[in-house]
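Help needed: design a sequence for this.
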């Protein structure tokens, strides 16, 4: 039983690692897709066309954003690995200089005398610790334990899942016609999505949940209003 609980907590912890990517992917997905829906509604587009535009945006932008997140994370990891190799070469070929740099780092932190010597000896007797200290304190770099692939995947999944919400009612009404006010219901469901994602953003950033929800809702509303009026204006010119 305890092993099952530990395994569940471990898996949940792994998922929490990628909560930031899920949140920001979800925000972008909801904002961009709802903007397409609002713009199409403002332009009085046929619901079938609006669904096509919505899904094209959802899949293309979701893929583009996830690839961008993956490449950005991979670039940061590659940059870290490159500098880490340089530090390994330096401590192997220039140990005295590198040792003095460690001493300078801890001297600036307020250590001195025998205590400073013990700290320097301890660090320099462990090559991996030595390099890690140089990376962190000299270069200001720390390795991100998150997988670039999983960062991209979390972004893609959240973008598509949350971004699909503004299209749900339109898709439902297309296959099962109703008397519902489609755009009104879409707006309500999207607002609920923004509230949930905004609450999660507050957790990720460790800020006020209410403020985070308000910012996310405001961003979505602004994008929708702009898209609606752009669609309405362009309709008068081109349709």
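Sure. Designed sequence:
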């Amino acid at each position: 039983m305890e092993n099952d609980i530990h395994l569940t907590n471990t898996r949940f912890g792994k998922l929490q690692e990628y909560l930031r990517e899920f949140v920001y992917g979800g925000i972008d997905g909801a904002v961009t897709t709802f903007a397409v829906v609002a713009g199409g509604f403002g332009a009085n587009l046929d619901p079938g066309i609006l669904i096509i535009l919505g899904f094209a945006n959802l899949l293309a932008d979701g893929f583009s954003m996830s690839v961008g997140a993956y490449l950005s994370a991979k670039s940061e990891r590659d940059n870290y690995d490159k500098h880490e190799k340089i530090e390994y070469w330096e401590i192997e070929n220039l140990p005295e200089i590198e040792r003095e740099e460690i001493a300078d780092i801890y001297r600036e932190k307020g250590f001195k005398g025998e205590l400073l010597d013990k700290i320097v000896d301890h660090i320099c007797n462990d090559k991996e610790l030595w390099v890690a200290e140089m990376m962190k304190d000299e270069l200001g770099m720390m390795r991100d334990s998150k997988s670039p692939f999983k960062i991209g995947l979390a972004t893609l999944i959240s973008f598509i899942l949350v971004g699909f919400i503004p299209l749900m009612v339109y898709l439902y009404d297309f296959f099962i016609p109703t008397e519902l006010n489609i755009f009104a219901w879409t707006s309500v469901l999207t607002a609920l999505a923004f509230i949930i994602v905004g609450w999660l953003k507050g957790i990720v950033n460790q800020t006020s949940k209410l403020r985070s929800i308000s910012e996310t809702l405001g961003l979505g509303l602004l994008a929708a209003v702009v898209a609606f009026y752009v669609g309405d204006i362009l309709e008068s010119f081109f349709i």
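Confidence is low (pLDDT under 50) at residues 1-13.
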